[in-house]
Each structure stands twice: as C-alpha cells, then as structure tokens.
What we know:
The structure holds two protein chains of two kinds.
Chain A: E1 4-5, E2 11-14, E3 19-25, E4 30-38, E5 45-50, E6 54-58, E7 61-66, E8 71-76, E9 85-93, E10 101-102, E11 106-111
Parallel strand pairs in A: 2-11
Antiparallel strand pairs in A: 1-3, 3-8, 4-5, 4-9, 6-7, 7-8, 9-10, 9-11
Chain B: E1 4-7, E2 10-13, E3 19-25, E4 31-38, E5 42-49, E6 56-57, E7 64-68, E8 74-78, E9 87-94, E10 104-105, E11 109-113
Parallel strand pairs in B: 2-11
Antiparallel strand pairs in B: 1-3, 3-8, 4-5, 4-9, 5-6, 7-8, 9-10, 9-11
Amino acid sequence: QKEVEQNSGPLSVPEGAIASLNCTYSDRGSQSFFWYRQYSGKSPELIMFIYSNGDKEDGRFTAQLNKASQYVSLLIRDSQPSDSATYLCAVKSDSGYSTLTFGKGTMLLVSP
Amino acid sequence: NAGVTQTPKFQVLKTGQSMTLQCAQDMNHNSMYWYRQDPGMGLRLIYYSASEGTTDKGEVPNGYNVSRLNKREFSLRLESAAPSQTSVYFCASSEQVRSGNTIYFGEGSWLTVV
Lengths: 112, 114
C-alpha cells in the first residue's frame, strides 16, 4: 500500500523565518509530487508540483525532491501569518492511470 | 470561473436516510474524484472516474455509490447513511496528463449523520 508520511505538527515559526515541511513516501515508482495548502474550513489548493530531483522555486516557496531517499520537502521563506495553514503532500505514481495519495498534512503556525 | 461546484454545502441526515452529493466541473477535465476528510485521517479517496463512462473504487468505497452522469458531473450517493459517514466530502477534477495529475477541489460538503 502506498503511504505518504508527514509530521502532523504544529510547526511553529516566527514571522520572517523559514518554515521547512517534510514528506516521505513509500512507493519507489512515484514520479510526481505536489504540495497543497489548506486553510481551516476550506478546500486544498495547489501550491507547487515537482517531478525532477533537485529544487524548484516559485516566489517564496521552494520544493525539494530526493527520489533516492524518497523524500520531498517544502520551504517557505519569509513566513507570514497568512501562511498559517495545513500543508498536504501528495504523490502520484506513473504506473498507468493512478490517483494522488495524500499525506495527513502538517499544520504550520506563523506567529507575528 | 466556477471550477468545481458541489452541493449541498451543509447537510444533516438521520441514520438510515439516503442522499446524493452533486458535483460539476466546468474545466473540461476528464477525471473526477470524491474524497472524504476526517480529523487525523487526511484525504481518503472514495471513488474516482478516470473518464466519462468509467468509475472505480478508491480506498474507502463501502457505503457509497457514484454516477458519472456526463463529462461535467459526478455524483456521490449514500444509500443508508451511518454516523461513521459524518465527514467533509470533497469533489475534485483533473486533466489526465501523462506526467502530472494536478487535482482541483471543490469547496467541500459538510455532512453530519445523527
């Protein structure tokens, strides 16, 4: 069974700091990796996706992927109180058609 | 730009009652999904439809049925609701692309079974 593991948190960081969110996955066939943000009472929204080993940057967000270690992370630079949310890691394998497998999410709290 | 629309947003049911959650997407996506989200359990896939005319079971299909009415609409039916089905339900859709499967979610339906 494919598993995606995340620390449930909460991860507390002060405003302006770097928040580091981590995710590990069990399926070595996984090829696509996604980070979603979910505010309380709202639906998940896509922040970033990454397919290749290494880093991918988008504004204040950087996704990092290490397929050998089966590890994907999300860095949020200059964290803002508005970044306080639950961050969901999702993984997709490319073995034919497959759906996303989600982790349970990490709650991030950014204090002013 | 509506995206993925689900109805109703809130519903209270008595044990044993039936109901249907409706979902429609206007992004011309091939694939549609129903997830449930419970505290501490994350998002779990109930059923999905890879393309119009097909449906498949996900991780937690028991107690549910689905209908892919056309390319736009995908409904979820609870035939005999149980308190264990109290949850937040999300409909979602995606393009079926080879190297990615970015899913877009509806706003959710809060269901309470008493």
